[in-house]
Write a structure and sequence with these properties.
This protein is α/β, with parallel strands linked by helices. It has helices spanning 16-31, 51-76, 89-96, 113-116, 120-128, 160-170, 190-203, 216-228, 242-250, 253-260; strands spanning 5-10, 34-40, 80-85, 100-106, 133-136, 146-151, 174-183, 209-215, 233-238, 265-268. The model is unreliable at 109-118 (pLDDT under 50).
Length: 269
């Protein structure tokens, strides 16, 4: 029997919080899960303030953030548990992930993975967690049926069980899956295609699936345009596929497709 699904949403006080909370709400609606919103107050304490005053200022800031979140959740029609901390967000998040679920975070800024997630805390969370981390760009409004674009590294690890689990949790909200990879222009493609077909076969999914091989910058540009033209697209990355991830980030893929193109991304454990 499948247990309850927990949606952990990490929200700050930026405009990105609305997209994170809406995505968490939608995920809970699609999967029958519950939402837990977590936030950390960032404070710069004056050097000459005594410890008692610091504790008081910290508590006031946490109470204010909690009130802001309550109003935000109410406006969005979201029922959720709520945790506000002054420090140790990573430890609190890991402790809250007892079981199956998702972590939902916001994307901001530009550049590579470490610069567009909401800080180093989330990067560490991706490395440590055993649940998918869903990164939501500002302005995204993902709607089913979802078209999953699954990145497969030609020589790197791929975990069929992680994708199978992701698809099973999303259920009938997934309509199609494309397995894709990228090779340098002019490089041999047979091995990469074989790797794609193997990943497709190993997953054994009953949904419509296909494979796509993209060569060089032109191939990635075509993929970017194709995905950006589909509002139901969800980019799926395997945490272990560092080689392909590095290539995608280096070639503008994340910055232009995810951040500027408003395409959400999920990183599987």
């Amino acid at each position: 029997m499948v247990g309850p699904l927990h949606i952990l949403a990490l929200a700050d006080d930026s405009p990105y919080a609305t997209d994170v909370l809406q995505m968490a709400r939608d995920l809970a609606g699609w999967t029958g899960g519950d939402v837990h919103v977590m936030s950390q107050v960032e404070m710069v304490m004056p050097a000459l303030v005594d410890s008692t005053t610091k504790v008081h200022m910290q508590q006031e800031a946490m109470d204010a953030r909690r009130h802001e979140l309550e109003e935000h959740l109410k406006a969005l029609g979201i029922q959720a548990r709520m945790t506000v901390v002054a420090r140790g967000l990573l430890d609190e998040a890991m402790a809250a992930l007892d079981g199956d679920g998702f972590v939902v975070v916001g994307l901001k800024g530009s550049g590579g993975l470490r610069r567009i997630f909401i800080g180093s805390t989330v990067v560490k969370l991706i490395d440590r967690t055993t649940v998918p981390v869903l990164a939501v760009p500002q302005g995204n409004h993902l709607r089913p049926p979802l078209h999953l674009y699954v990145a497969v590294a030609p020589d790197g690890p791929f975990t069929p069980a992680s994708l199978q689990h992701l698809v099973s949790r999303l259920g009938d909200k997934v309509g199609r899956i494309t397995f894709f990879t990228s090779v340098d222009q002019g490089a041999p493609s047979e091995q990469a295609l074989e790797r794609l077909r193997k990943a497709q076969a190993e997953c054994g999914l009953s949904l419509p699936t296909e494979v796509e091989l993209h060569q060089g910058a032109e191939g990635l540009a075509a993929l970017k345009q194709h995905v950006a033209d589909h509002p139901n697209a969800l980019l799926v990355l395997n945490r272990g596929g560092r080689e392909l991830l590095d290539q995608l980030f280096r070639r503008f893929f994340i910055n232009e497709l995810v951040y500027e193109g408003h395409v959400p991304m999920v990183v599987m454990p």
